[in-house]
């Protein structure tokens, strides 16, 4: 049986919506429907009841689902074991100069025999879809902001509660302050990735932070690649940009931490469930050591963070000793 058909089935069963399942798998909806029909023919059973209003699992579909998930997990384990340590591990860091880059640098020290390849693309929502599809191995970001069906396919380890900041044009009225009280942003339109499908988890966090405070989410803007494009777009829109305190310096801009309260961005190391690779072990050990050395998982007493983020970060398996990852 083609594992692709089982992945199609599990995706639709998780979403109970063909359009969303197709987007999750990065395939056309028509192709997904064909795969489901082919699987139903091979099994001689109808798996879904489809109406114009909803999609539900049949009794046969309910029975098949746990077996399909186990088969796919076994396939992932087999692929990981076959790949072994010889293949490079592709790690998405989001941006240069941030906590994720420090984790990678420490992991390279811990496992010099591993080839840990970095790339820089924004957004855990987009990266998670690529991890599930096998096109990426590891990323960093806000795990609670992912769809629960996607989270079920991934593992994560808390890395840091990152204090948030705003990037302001150098001549902005608030730029002269050393710290920006959150309420001082009332009336502002703050850019937080709106319209970018790869950064839904970040936009959601901003929306929760701004709710009831008179702060608007800035409308979609072109995704700027590179420092010069970032400078040009920011000069054109002049909107403050929601960031974290380690965000790299940008020309004609100043970065200021946000206070009263101190909003936190929960950063996790994220990888595909069942992935076995010494590079993942090294990254986990590096994250645990840096967190212990620098207090990355301590929360400011005056912090702000949604309860579901706190729960997921607190409940995640952790390395009690940084040497355990191997």
UniProtKB/TrEMBL annotation:
Highest taxon above the source species: Bacteria
SUPFAM superfamilies: Periplasmic binding protein-like II, Winged helix' DNA-binding domain
Keywords from the named record: DNA-binding, Transcription, Transcription regulation
Pfam families: HTH_1 (PF00126), LysR_substrate (PF03466)
Domain HTH lysR-type: 1-58
Keyword RNA-binding listed: no
Family: Belongs to the LysR transcriptional regulatory family.
Protein name: LysR family transcriptional regulator
Source organism (scientific name): Streptomyces maoxianensis
């Amino acid at each position: 049986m083609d594992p692709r058909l089982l992945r199609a089935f599990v995706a639709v069963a998780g979403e109970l919506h063909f359009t969303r399942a197709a987007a999750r798998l990065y395939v056309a909806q028509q192709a997904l429907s064909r795969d489901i029909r082919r699987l139903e023919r091979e099994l001689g059973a109808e798996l879904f009841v489809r109406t114009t209003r909803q999609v539900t699992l049949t009794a046969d579909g309910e029975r098949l689902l746990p077996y399909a998930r186990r088969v796919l997990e076994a396939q992932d384990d087999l692929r990981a074991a076959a790949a072994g340590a010889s293949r490079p591990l592709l790690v998405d860091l989001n941006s240069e100069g941030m906590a994720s880059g420090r984790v990678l640098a420490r992991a390279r020290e811990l496992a010099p025999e591993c080839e840990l390849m970095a790339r820089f693309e924004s957004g855990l929502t987009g990266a998670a879809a690529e991890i599930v599809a096998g096109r990426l191995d590891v990323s960093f970001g806000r795990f609670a902001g992912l769809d629960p069906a996607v989270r079920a396919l991934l593992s994560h380890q808390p890395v840091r509660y990152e204090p948030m900041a705003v990037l302001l044009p150098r001549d902005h009225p608030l730029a002269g302050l050393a710290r920006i009280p959150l309420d001082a942003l009332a009336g502002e339109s703050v850019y937080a990735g709106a319209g970018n499908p790869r950064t839904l988890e970040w936009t959601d966090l901003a929306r929760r932070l701004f709710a009831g405070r008179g702060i608007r989410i800035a409308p979609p803007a072109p995704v700027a690649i590179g420092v010069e494009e970032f400078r040009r777009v920011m000069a054109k829109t002049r909107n403050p940009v929601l960031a974290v305190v380690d965000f790299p310096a940008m020309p004609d801009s100043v970065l200021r931490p946000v206070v009263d309260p101190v909003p936190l961005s929960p950063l996790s190391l994220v990888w595909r469930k069942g992935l076995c690779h010494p590079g993942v072990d090294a990254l986990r050990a590096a994250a645990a050591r840096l967190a212990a050395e620098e207090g990355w998982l301590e929360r400011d007493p005056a912090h702000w963070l949604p309860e579901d983020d706190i729960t997921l970060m607190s409940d995640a398996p952790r390395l009690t000793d940084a040497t355990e990852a191997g």
